[in-house]
Amino acid sequence: MNICVFLSAADLDDRYTVPAREFAELLGRGGHTLVWGGSESGLMKVVADGVRASGGRLVGVSVEFLAAKARTDADEMVIAKDLAERKALLLEKADAVVIMVGGTGTLDEATEILELKKHGKHTKPVVLLNTAGFYDGLRQQFQRMEDEGFLPLPLTDLVFFAKDGVGALAYLEESAGLL
Predict the structure, then answer these.
(1) How many helices, marked H, and strands, marked E, lie in the chain?
(2) Could you give the CA distance from residue 35 to residue 18 in angstroms, rounded to a whole number?
(3) Is the entire prediction scored with pTM above 0.85?
(4) Distance, CA of 75 to chain centre
(5) HEC per residue, 34-91
(6) Is there a contact between 111 and 135 (Cβ–Cβ < 8 Å)?
(7) pLDDT single digits (tens) 50-84
(8) Measured distance between the N- and C-terminal CA atoms of the chain, rounded to whole angstroms
(9) In whole angstroms, how large is the CA radius of gyration of the chain?
(10) pLDDT one-digit tens code per residue, 109-142
(11) Measured between alpha carbons, how far is residue 59 from residues 90, 119, 150 in Å?
């Protein structure tokens, strides 16, 4: 399965990097392909290294202004002209999406993917990997949106919140009929 992972390119501490590496190793050992922003820095590097070391493939989609930070040993690397094209290509190449910890770029990617799913533009499973409770506040906000009628479909149809990588991958594999 081609699994797109949206995540930070920042250097983060062990509470985020250790679970990210563990998830990456699960992907690689499972024979999955990582589809990601292509960066060779921060948490993006941690995940790509973990997938590669565990036997998985790497498909990167970078953007022109970040091309100098793109990983050179990816199995495939595409350079998009801008962030909008990058997001479209990442979704196009993926069978499923996992959103890990990140900043405003990751949040932008997450909300666009969920908005597209809400409008039926894709039916791919989406997981928010809630490492160290990072997305507890967002989950609460989404629940309020559902409770107050802002979501036209149940939150559970839109996104799955996973506490850890094992739960995230199990959900994706079950959604794809692999379990």
Answers:
(1) 7, 7
(2) 20
(3) yes
(4) 18
(5) EEECCECCHHHHHHHHHHHHCCCEEEEEEEHHHHHHECCCCCEEEEECCHHHHHHHHH
(6) no
(7) 999 999 999 999 999 999 999 999 999 999 999 99
(8) 13
(9) 15
(10) 999 999 999 999 999 999 999 999 999 999 999 9
(11) 9, 27, 35
Contacts of 158 (CB under 8 A, 6+ apart): 114, 117, 118, 126, 142, 151
Residue tagged 């797109």 (tokens): 4
Paired tokens of 165: 């990588």
Name residue 61's beta-bridge partners. 78
Dihedral sign from CA coordinates of 1, 175, 121, 100: negative
